[in-house]
Amino acid sequence: MLGIIKNTITDNAILGAIFSSIFIILLGFYLRKKEILNSVASKMLTKVVLSVSLPALAFTAFMKDINGKQLREGLSILVWGFAIYIILIPITKFIYLKVKGDKQDVYRVLTIFGSTTFFSTPIIAVVYGVVGVMYANIFNIAYRVFLYSYAFIKMSGAKMDKDNFKKNMKEIFLNPIIIATFLGLFIWLFQENLPQVAVQVKGEVKEVAFLRIDQTIPWLYKPLTYLKTLASPLAWLSIGSTLAEVPFKKAVSQKDAWVYSVIKVMLVPVLNLVLLMVLNKLNILPVSFEGLAATVIMMAAPTATVAAAYAISYDREALFTSNCSLLSTVFAVFAMPVWIVILEVIKSLGIF
C-alpha cells in the first residue's frame, strides 16, 4: 500500500497536474492582489473560459472513433448523472436535519451542486485526458437540468410556471457548453450513420463522417485544439483571482462554513465513489476507471457559482453562502490532489 502511494505521488504526470493547478491558482491570487489583474479582467477571464475554452474542450472530446464499450459506459454515466442528484436530494435532507428554515435549503442546494464545469473539468482534462472530459460532459447533462430546475425552485421559492420554465430551458439549452456537448455527442453517437467521406489517416485511406472535422477539415479543427488547451490555465487563473477578492478572515471564523466544506468536498464524492463502485461491480452501471474518476472529481467540486448566485439574488443566507463558496474553493484546491491520489491507489490495487 505505501509503495503504491509513493509511486502515485512521485509519478511525474500526476505530480505535474497537481502542481500545475495549485501553482496557477496561486499565481492568479498573486496577480489579483498586486492589481496586475483587476476585477474587470478577472471577470473577463471567466467569460472567456465559459463561452469559448470550455465549449471547445467539450466539443473536441467527442472527436474520436466510437466503440461499443465506450458507448455503454457513456450511457451508464448519463444514467448515473441523473441518479446521483436524485439520491442527494433526500440524503442532504437527512444530513442537515438539525438545520431549520431557509438555511437548510441553502445548505442542501450548495451541497448538491458544485462547480463541476469551471473547477473540475479543467482538472479532469489534465489528469484523465479526452476520455475523462467526454464522460465528464455526459455526466454534466443531468447537473444542468437539476441546477436550473430544482435549485432554482428551492432558492427562489418560485413555482416552475410557464415563464420560469421557458427561461430555465433557455439557460440549459442555449448555454455554449451544453450546445458544444450535445453537438459533439451527436457526432460521436451517429458518426457511422452520417454521410461518409474518404480521408487519409496515417498513410491509409478510411471513410469517416463528414462532421468529424478533426479528420475532414483539420485546418478548422486546429483552432479548437488551441482554445481547449486554454481552458485549464485560464480557469485556474480566474479561480485564484476570485479568491483574492473575498475577505478570508471572516470566512475562516465561521464554523458552519467549514463543516459544509468538508461535507461538500469529501463526503459527497465518497458517497458517489462507493455507490458507483457497487453498481459497477454488480454490472448494473458498468463504467471504466476514467468514468469513475471523472464523476468523483466532479462531485468534489466547491460551491457552484450559479447556486451561490441564486442564494445571493434571493437573499437566502447571502453572507453564509459567500463564506461557503470561499472556504469550499480553498478546501477543494488542496483536497483535489488527495482525491487524485486516492483514485490512483484504487486503480493500482485493482479494487476497480
From TrEMBL:
Superkingdom of the organism of origin: Bacteria
Listed GO biological process terms: transmembrane transport
Keywords, alphabetical: Cell membrane, Membrane, Transmembrane, Transmembrane helix, Transport
Entry GO terms, CC: membrane
Subcellular location: Membrane
Residue ranges of the TM segments: 12-32, 44-63, 75-97, 109-128, 134-153, 173-190, 257-279, 291-313, 325-346
Protein name in UniProt: Malate permease
Phylogenetic classification of the source organism: Bacteria, Bacillati, Bacillota, Clostridia, Eubacteriales
